[in-house]
Design brief:
The complex is a heterodimer. Chain A is α/β, with parallel strands linked by helices. Chain A is built from 15 helices and 19 strands. Chain A folds into 2 domains: about 140 residues, Alpha-Beta Complex (Aspartate Aminotransferase, domain 1); about 260 residues, 3-Layer(aba) Sandwich (Aspartate Aminotransferase, domain 2), CATH 3.40.640.10. In chain A, helix 2 runs antiparallel to helix 11. The two termini of chain A are about 35 Å apart. Chain B has one domain: Sufe protein. Chain: A, CATH 3.90.1010. Chain B has 6 helices and 4 strands. Chain B has a 4-stranded mixed sheet with strand order 3-2-1-4, with helices on one face. In chain B, strand 2 and strand 3 form a beta hairpin. Classes of the chains: A alpha/beta, B alpha+beta. Chains A and B meet through helix 13 and helix 15 of A and helix 1, helix 2 and helix 3 of B.
Chain lengths: ~425, ~150
């Protein structure tokens, strides 16, 4: 395979440059064809592809390691428990948490946010209180708070964004009131690619005594995360957006919060002692993991974190940032193309519209060329309204994408323009 | 992109660029909204009945080439039809774009609407082509609530 990125160096790890050709060789799906054309996968903000290391880890667990965790005295169960808890330690390191007890396995970022809303939120938010979010949130960081506010008679406040898709930091600070019980902000926008200054936002909120949940669903794959340095109260991400399996993700919560929070769901594993009169709950994080967890998912996620670590997050981020810049330059010259989201601090997501051509039609034409992009509202309808479009087309990048693929995207978009504007 | 020419036929592109009956109806019209949550497309269909006859039908909204052209061609096809004829047309249209391949006689009876036969090969686009029809149907039934493709 030829080196297409311009960053590739021979050998697996030389200097800090990512060997993209070697990375691509680890992802079987990237050799596949769609509609008779080589797959160009540019829908990584929706989900990333999986390296063989991840699928092997999952298959191997089911083939030779399968057993339930925290249960049996038999050898297999002990092994499964060890691997499941080792996965928790991997996530701890990945996020920079102080202890594995601060990591709760959940189905994904969405469940992590719902867990916090339904436990911490319910206990903390009352009538007349406020929850503050931003105008660039994914539906998963809007709706759980809306539900909570409706239930508790509280008010949802929204910090606005400017025309570039950057958060109005001053407005965010202004909206932090004595009634604000919690702020929930995205680390990086899935629809615009904007990176929020989360450290600054957390500091501002904490200065007013407001705890902060950070939605890391998009950021976790692209940015280095250190929750201890950020000092955020909660952080959530999804495994499938960091090259891991679907159905697994993690919630980080400061130990003191997790200890004080009521349980989320009731069931096995979250208890210490049960009688019909009363139940004593297990300690965190087990208190929040009722029922048999997604063991193979956690093991697969640990394999994904290992895989990212093998190349180094800095090298990956450097490659993605350079490729994002390249994509912005390449697409800027296309007739009638307008970028949605032009923040200074951004990475890996390029949203755009073509004048007079609906994103769905763009998506269908590109699909015939083997190019997978996302078209629609990206589960962020308020952002679409903010920019006055019903939908956008979005190309989103990952560590395995190349300049050749961006060139293919640009060529296909020019063909779309020719086809519709004849 | 030769296959795409089957989907994006010239008639479809023409109706997308210059949709016909793209206006609110005058006078005492029934109306119904259609919404496709998958893509965020919205269409409002206005319908004026004269007894059993469709006297006027028009639409407003934003959508892709397939949904806009489908709404536009639908309004042309429905004017002057009886209620029963309109229902039959919808059924045949639906069968054409979802079925394994309608007989040529049925496709022929659809007239200009036959240009949508290519949609059959793009299952995710079927909802685009039927959005306005579902809204029309709701307006005909006099249902006030918006119809959703989901």
């Amino acid at each position: 395979m030829k080196s297409a990125s311009g960053f590739a160096a021979p050998g697996a790890r030389q200097g800090s440059a990512l060997n993209v050709a070697a990375v691509r060789a680890d992802f079987p799906i990237l050799k596949d064809s769609v509609h008779g054309r080589p797959l160009v996968y540019l829908d990584n903000a929706a989900t990333t592809q999986k390296p063989r290391a991840v699928t092997d880890a999952v298959t191997d667990f089911y083939a030779h390691g399968n057993s339930n965790v925290h249960r049996g005295v038999h050898w297999l169960s002990q092994q499964a428990t060890e691997r499941y808890e080792a996965a928790r330690a991997s996530v701890q390191t990945f996020l920079g948490a102080r202890s594995p007890e601060e990591i709760v396995f959940v189905r994904g970022a969405t469940e992590g946010i719902n867990l916090v809303a339904q436990t911490y939120g319910r206990a903390r938010v009352g009538p007349g209180d406020e929850v503050l979010i931003t105008a660039m949130e994914h539906h998963s960081n809007i709706v759980p708070w809306q539900m909570l506010c409706e239930e508790r008679g509280a008010m949802l406040r929204v910090a606005p964004i400017n025309d570039s898709g950057e958060l109005a930091v001053n407005e965010f600070a202004r909206l932090l009131s004595p009634k604000t019980r919690l702020a929930a902000i995205t680390h990086m926008s899935n629809a615009l690619g904007t990176i929020n200054p989360v450290a600054q936002l957390v500091e501002t909120a904490h200065a007013r005594g407001v705890p902060v949940l950070v939605d890391g669903a998009q950021a976790a794959a692209h940015l280095s995360v250190d929750v201890s340095a950020l000092d955020c109260d909660f952080y959530v991400f999804s495994g499938h957006k960091v090259y891991g399996p679907t159905g697994i993700g993690a919630l980080y919560g400061k130990a003191a919060h997790l200890a004080a929070m009521p349980p989320y769901q009731g069931g096995g594993d979250m208890i210490l002692d049960v009688s019909f009169e009363r139940t004593i709950y297990n300690k965190a994080p087990f208190k929040f993991e009722a029922g048999t967890p997604h063991i193979s998912g956690a093991i697969g996620l640990a394999a994904a974190i290992d895989y990212i670590g093998r190349w180094g997050k800095n090298a990956i981020a450097e490659h993605e940032t350079a490729l994002t810049r390249y994509a912005l330059e390449k697409l800027a010259g296309i007739d009638g193309l307008r970028f949605i989201g032009t923040a200074r601090e951004r990475t890996s997501v390029v949203s755009f519209v073509l004048e007079g051509i609906h994103p769905h039609d763009i998506g269908t034409v590109l699909d015939q060329e083997g190019i997978a992009i996302r078209t629609g509202h990206h589960c962020a309808q308020p952002i679409m309204s903010r920019f006055g479009v019903p939908a956008t087309a979005r190309a989103s990048l990952a560590m395995y994408n190349t300049r050749d693929e961006i060139d293919a995207l640009a060529a296909a978009l020019r063909a779309v323009v020719r086809m519709f504007n004849r | 992109m030769s296959d795409l020419r089957e989907l994006y036929q010239e008639v479809i592109l023409d109706h997308y660029r210059r949709p016909r009956n793209f206006r609110e109806a005058e006078g005492d019209a029934r109306r119904a909204d259609g919404f496709n949550p998958l893509c965020g497309d919205r269409v409002t269909v206005f319908l004026v009945m004269d007894g059993d006859i469709v006297r006027d039908v028009s639409f407003k909204g934003v959508g892709c080439a397939i949904s806009t052209a489908s709404a536009s061609l639908m309004t042309e096809a429905l004017k002057g039809k009886t209620r029963a004829e309109a229902e039959t047309l919808f059924t045949r249209f639906h069968d054409m774009i979802t079925g394994p391949g309608a007989g040529s006689a049925e496709t022929e009876s659809l007239g200009k609407l036959a240009v949508f036969s290519g949609v059959r090969d793009y299952p995710v686009r079927v909802k685009c082509a039927t959005l306005a029809w579902h809204a029309f149907h709701a307006a005909l039934e006099g249902r006030g609530e918006p119809v959703s493709t989901e």
